[in-house]
Amino acid sequence: MKIDVLMPALSPTMEVGTLAKWLVKKGDLVKAGDLLAEIETDKAIMEFEAVEEGQILELLAKEGQTDIPVNSPIAKIQSDDVDEKVSNQGKDKEKAPLDIAVSKNAVEVVENKNEIKNSNNEGASIRIFATPLARKIAAKKNIDLSQIKGSGPRGRIIKSDLEKFGTQSLDLEPNKLNQIVTTTDKANKSNIPAIYSKREFKVIEIDGMRKTIVSRLTSAKQNIPHYYLRRDINMDSLINIRSQMNEGLKDQNIKISINDFIIKACAMALQSVPTCNVIWAEDQILSFTASDIAVAVAVDGGLLTPVLLDVEKKSLQEISIEMKTLAERARQKKLLPNEYQGGSFSISSLGMMGIKNFDAVINPPHGSILAVGAVIKTPVAKEDGSIKVESIVSVTLSADHRMIDGAIGAKFLERIAYNLENPGLLLV
Fold it and tell me: What is d(CA 224, CA 211) in angstroms, rounded to the nearest whole number?
């Protein structure tokens, strides 16, 4: 029986995807758990596994094809074990896997391989369909599959569902975006101002990541009441301690960056001013105990914000190692959903490019974001009238006035500055 392989939803916000690369070809035999393709989402490139056993009949989507709607067919597999009703199941996004009818042979396969039964109070059995790889991961991590909504064909639980499980426990049901319609007219002449029509130009296609950036940041600037607090911070003591630490860490091949200190300073400040450790959840504010911090990383074609969890508990060495690993995975677009979702506070730095200061747009649903400029030798007038050259960094806190009042934001920024100007506190 022919079965449609559908474009999976690999992240909570994913409505369309790009077929980055096929890992199989027409005629290949595959089994559940085999890798079929690399799918590019709005945030990363992720591997997509087969959930059915059979032979690849046809690859419907081409490599590089963009804006493929979630749950639309991208390939066909020939499988003799699945009933006609199963092959048609899943085309309707709203149908539950409980409606699936299977042949006698297929029932044996499901019960032995892909089915977990849970009993409710009335004693009825509920089938939970999951791939072998997903079941293996669930068993290893002691995850109850009945608590997970599958995003694979016909509601089957796949690997990516487990990877993002737990990061969505506080998330609200994402708003459905209007389906993006592709156009064969690459350069829509009706959208080109007449003054430019005779000038030489090329059309730059807007990919999934850029569309997400456009949507989220436009919404953030329109809907979030930003206010901005600026402060100069003396970094001389921090630079001296950093130099001493890196000298002692040479043998371990660890090099602490100024950004590592800033991440830790912000994490400790969130502990000192917990009213800033918040996110906006439609009609309520969620306040968190741990300092989970997102750090902006520039990548080809856009920006990703990997999240470091429980930063207040980590040493500078641990922060340095984890941040370097996440940044490299971000540049390769290999981050998993749980590595770039969540957090309540963000940091964006352009200091390495010589930018003195800038204002960053809040990353919703976060309560605030810190924009960090370059450390610059600056003459500073002292109270006794003397002039001293100091290493100064200019930072700007963008805060959401719905959650964080101006005085609270000022207290938070003051604490960040205090932590950076007294870096010994960050070593405890």
Answer: 19
pLDDT per residue as tens digits for the range 181-203: 333 344 566 678 888 888 898 88
What is the C-alpha end-to-end distance of the chain, expressed in Å? 63
Is-contact 308 252, C-beta < 8 A?
A: no
The rounded distance, in Å, linking the Cα atoms of 410 and 424 is 23
Alpha helices in 192-332 (DSSP H): 208-223, 236-248, 258-272, 316-331
Select from 259, 275, 382 the least CA-distant residue to 316: 259
Q: CA 7, 9, 15, 19 torsion: positive or negative?
A: negative
What residues does CATH 3.30.559.10 cover in the chain? 226-427
HSE-up of 422 (CA within 13 Å, CB side)? 9
Per-residue pLDDT tens for 20-67? 899 999 999 998 888 899 888 766 778 888 887 889 999 999 998 888
CATH 3.40.720.10 fits 226-427, yes or no: no
* Average pLDDT of the residues of the chain: 82
- 330 in Cβ contact with 306 (< 8 Å): yes
**Location of each CATH 2.40.50.100 domain in the chain:** 2-164
Q: Does the pTM of the predicted model rise above 0.70?
A: no
Q: Is 401 a catalytic residue?
A: yes
pLDDT of residue 192: 82
Handedness of CA 206, 209, 213, 215 (dihedral sign): positive
- The answer to whether the CB of 390 falls within 8 A of the CB of 421 is no
Q: How many residues does the chain have?
A: 428
Please answer whether residues 320 and 24 qualify as being in contact, where contact means their C-beta atoms are separated by less than 8 angstroms: no
| Correct CATH for 2-164 of 3.40.630.30, 2.40.160.20, 3.90.1150.10, 2.40.50.100 | 2.40.50.100
| Section 158-178 average pLDDT | 53
pLDDT one-digit tens code per residue, 73-91:
999 998 765 444 334 444 4
Q: Are 17 and 41 in contact (CB under 8 A)?
A: yes
d(CA 117, CA 119): 7
Q: Among residues 31, 117, 230, 401, which one is catalytic?
A: 401
Residue 313 has which token pair? 């508990």
| 3-class DSSP assignment, residue 220 | helix
DSSP H helices, 89-235, are 104-109, 132-141, 159-164, 208-223
Question: Coil, strand, or helix at residue 164?
Answer: helix
What is the per-residue pLDDT for 266?
98
The answer to whether 366 and 296 have CB atoms below 8 angstroms apart is no
